[in-house]
Structures are given as structure tokens and as C-alpha cells.
Amino acid sequence: MTGAKVERRHNFFPDFNDWFSREFPGLPGRFPVxxxxxxxxxxxxGDGTYVLRAELPGMDPDEDITITVDGNLVTxxxxxxxxxxxxxxxxxxxxxxxxxxxxxxxxxxxGVEASYTDGILTVRVPMxxxxxxxxxxxxxxxxxxxxxx
Length: 149
Hints:
Blueprint: H1 17-23, E1 41-46, E2 49-55, E3 65-70, E4 73-80, E5 95-102, E6 113-117, E7 120-126, H2 130-133
């Protein structure tokens, strides 16, 4: 069983950068130096669960990674502090990282699980029951002729 498609967001119109920056704070905007780095992610679904996998190498999951859920939004935030060691050259990314994923359904209050192994954060979000997601017909009751409220 698979869930509804996960929404993908792409900035096809550069003139709307300001709007995208407000609506999608986890995505890099026109001023990437001031914005948090985006986190590479993949989202899959199956067996009644959405699975979000994020690349976060070199992080301490107890200290550096925060996951928040709000409605149907899952936000992964991380902070990677730069070492004090002098470097000749570095291509590592330091600072704040953030990514928000919009799922098709509200995230339940219970049952969300996260694990971190070999630089990959895996977040498992249970899908709502099919019964609560399925479209249904609501019967219309006939009222009395005098009941017009």
C-alpha cells in the first residue's frame, strides 16, 4: 500500500524568490549566505509509513539534530559547529541546516520515530488509517417544511 504523493517544491520562477523564502523557509533563497543550508532528503512511502531519509554526516544526534512536527509538516534542523583546527582547505559545510517536508496527511501525535546511523537520519511517520482518509458520502436529511434555519 502506498500513500498519496508527497508534494515536491521547485522554484521555477526566480522572480518569486521572496515568496518562496517566506513560504518555504528551509529552502535556499536569493541570499544563501544568510539562509540555513538545505538538507538532501528522500521521501518514500509503503507499509503504512512515510520514511524520510536525510544526509547529515558528522552530526551528534543527541546534540545537533532536532525534529519538529506541526500539522502535516516535518522539519529537520541541525547545527554543525566548525572545529577550531586550522585548515589549508575545507569543503565541509558548517552552520545551520534545515529542511521542511510537507506530507499529504497530518502527522499523528504518537508513533513518529527517528534513528541516526552512518550519517543518515531516518524518520518514520505512520500514515493515517485508510478509513479516516477515504472519501465518503454524507447523507442529506430532509427537514420539515417549516424548518428553514
